[in-house]
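seq:
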Amino acid sequence: ISLHSFPFSLCVSLAPKKGVKVAAKKKTDKVANPLFERRPKQFGIGGALPPKKDLTRYIKWPKSIRLQRQKRILKQRLKVPPALNQFTKTLDKNLATSLFKILLKYRPEDKAAKKERLVKKAQAEAEGKPSESKKPIVVKYGLNHVTYLIEQNKAQLVVIAHDVDPIELVVWLPALCRKMEVPYCIVKGKSRLGAVVHQKTAACLCLTTVKNEDKLEFSKVLEAIKANFNDKYEEYRKKWGGGVMGSKSQAKTKAKERMEVSNNDRSSSFKDAELELYTIPAHSSWFVWEDIHEIERREFAEFFSESSITRTPKVYKEYRDFIINKYREDDSSRRLTFTSIRKHLVGDVNLLRKVFLFLENWGLINFLNKSDDGSMEESEAEIELGTPAGIRVTATPVSMRPVTVPPLVEERAEPAFKFSPLTSYSDVFTDLNKPLLCGHCGESSCDSAFYQHTKSLVTLCDKCGDCGENNSAHDFKLIAAAAWTEEETLLLLESVLKHGDDWDLIAQSVSTKSRLDCISKLIELPFRRVSDGIFLWKTQILYPHFRG
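struct:
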């Protein structure tokens, strides 16, 4: 009897009885026909048909889709500032459900509802019945309208979409809400907000009030929103976004880290005799090469505050390790200077200087080659920290060179060392601001303005005005006490080159200004102006007929 003669429902395989072993099925080997040879398929021209392939990855998508995907990738790769990164912190699902449940109760009327309301109002007016004129409570929308309600302190809750394009339209709205102390939240989907107000999309919504039966639930939602957004302003203000690399970049980074770990393990397996010992003082025993100690974190808090992408713990460790390695590579008998370090490192000069001094004070560098008296060497004393605000004149000190006293000051000649080691501040600087004296009456009344002779350096006060018998009023010109003429400026530069840092002789040469005026003017001069003045002075001496 053939099985095919039975109904299909009867062809069921029954389970074997318990305790009965099932006989193993014999594998039947396929017998290959020697008349037909099996050959591999050739998919070349004129060969076998190729199998079907999924070609969706080769499709050229529309430009709008490609731009949309590239923009999304860029937002993941690039560093996003906190003002834009705050729009990635959206409301959670449960709280968003409760919020939209309230918003849907206060949806504004659509066209059909408005038409029905107007028809009822017209019928009531035709019948002579009073029509309801009470203003309904609805959700407000529109960026300008919502901004006006926030500024007038009428808004109780502001809802902002996270995907507004361009984001600059609403990037300032959270700051305005915090300023006016209005609760706000960021939810996903501008289309979801648009559905509430019968629009395609909506950038923001606003609630001014709710009905009495919804006030309890609305207060709970407001409290949760304040805790998640308004109270976390300081936290969101410091967090940057983005910086997520692709899978290929992450794989390369991980492979590089594994290689570094293997190299470190290989180097640590050397014998102790082959290791190079690095001596540090006992009070710096807290230092660990592989880690950053708490002392370093307290000293350099700016590297650990996450306020800038150029000041991170990794950057600090690179600075520290490079300085120490540079000291170990060089000859230990030579002192490491900041100038040699500055040539190889790029960054804030003040921070580099701070790291260098920190390592030197703790004895991590320059520990074995300090001078006997503990003073700095001459090579370390000359350090330039960027471009100065004015100019610094360096010359041989007065005590190290012979001084030729001019005839005008022979009577008041001073010793080579003017001040003793215990000279007080008042003893040194009390006579810096010495007033000018009138050449006729001898009074110090030249503070506001004075008259100066056009050919000589004779000064007259504005109260006296006596020009003498041999001079006329046309020989003098009025000069403000604070103003500097070109002749005085050139004379100041000439005196600085001639006398160096001896400000008494400089003030003696520039007779119309005091020592403090000369020092202040030299600091105020820009570097290019000083260089041009020195060049002009030298040119006029060497080439009198030159007019530059």
